[in-house]
Amino acid sequence: MRETVRPGDTPRLSDTPRPSVTVRPCKTPRPRETVQPREAVRVRGLVRRIEAATPSGRDRAVDGLRAVAILGVVLGHWLVTALVADSGTLRVASPLRYQPGLTPVSWVFQTLAVFFLVGGQMGAKSHECARARGISYRRWLRARLARLFRPVAAVLTVWAVAAGALLGAGVSLLTVHTLLKLVLSPLWFLLVYAVLTAATPLVARLHPLWPLAVVLHVDLIRFGFDGPAWLGWVNLAAGWLVPYCLGAAWGRGRLRGRTAGWVLLTGGAAVTAGLVLLGGYPAAMVGVPGASISNLNPPTLAAVTFGLAQCGAALLLRGPLRRVLARPAAWAVVALVNLAAMTVFLWHQTAMMAVSVTTLRLAGPQTGLHTVPEGPGWVLARLCWLPVFAGALLICWAAFHAYEAGRSRKDGGGRVVREGRPGKQAHRAHQARQAQRARNVEQRSV
Q1: What does DSSP say about strands 82-86 and 89-93: parallel, antiparallel, or unpaired?
Q2: Considering the entire predicted model, what is its pTM?
Q3: Range in 31-35, 75-79, 193-197, 277-281 with the lowest mean pLDDT
Q4: How far apart are CA 104 and CA 381, in angstroms?
Q5: I need a surface site. Which of 198, 227, 352, 436 has the fewest CB within 10 A?
């Protein structure tokens, strides 16, 4: 029966008219687009350009070792060199003199032997490539030396003007002499490196034992038979020729196994320890003001054997470095450091001195910067100043790297790997691939 709704009755839900409802299909929420910061996009683009500009056969471990050597020299100078403010003048002091317990710092950051090892490897390979391409020795040498001495001109010009300005402002002659000595003293390294580079065709096949024997006899005459002190400067060339010859042997395809690395590391370390403990050589591998003997100026037998141990460690690190630098981001950092290697080497002392002098003028003597380097407080304070030095060095790099590299500032970072001109090699490889594709298409069509 049909039910009737009486007046006063409450209508049931089924009796009320239902409004028409339009059911729309559910839409999957659209993922929010992430907007990457502009700087991150630029960095990633730079990393991609560096990776694309690098030849596939390039041994990235060589560039990694050179970057380690340069950064070791920079950090070593920043840690063991102090400009002490004393009666209105600045004088150089070393924490190694006041805190002998810091001597192992010189073992870690005195990495010149590694730089000469890499220099010998790259010099030998570069000369062989130049001969294969028909490039004359004079042209090859001129190109190699231009990379070294073009940046020096900028440093000498800036400091000639700065020295005149400091003297005109009333700065004492002793302070100006101290600053100029810190700037010019690293240039000896470039002179020795230039001489060894020029002698590459002669020393590329020289066995490292020959210059090592020269160093041994020079030290024997100097220290064993009270020979003249000036004779030690023979070791300035002979001593650094030892790792340079090792690098040349590496460039010729030798020293590939790990056996050579272990022999150099263990043998060099054992002989160095014996010379320090029994032979009377100083333990610090850098010059210490006030010390009677310096292992570095000029190089002694202990410095050379220690360099052999460093070369052995460098050879053992080739495999791990190749694996790490296979990552584009890590390789981009190393490539940029190598591109700025000369700028960093030539201007790192200027950056430290600029911070020291400016801070002294504005805020007076500061711990870790102008005080005598004695006690752990100085070490902790100096570690805090290192980022400030790095910032000043970054300013120097921004001001001079384009001129020193011989490029326009509008280069855009495309050719970031300098050795071997990878930009042109990548272009030639691209052209070769295009030509091969065209030949393949033509063969298929036939």
Answers
A1: antiparallel
A2: 0.81
A3: 31-35
A4: 19
A5: 436
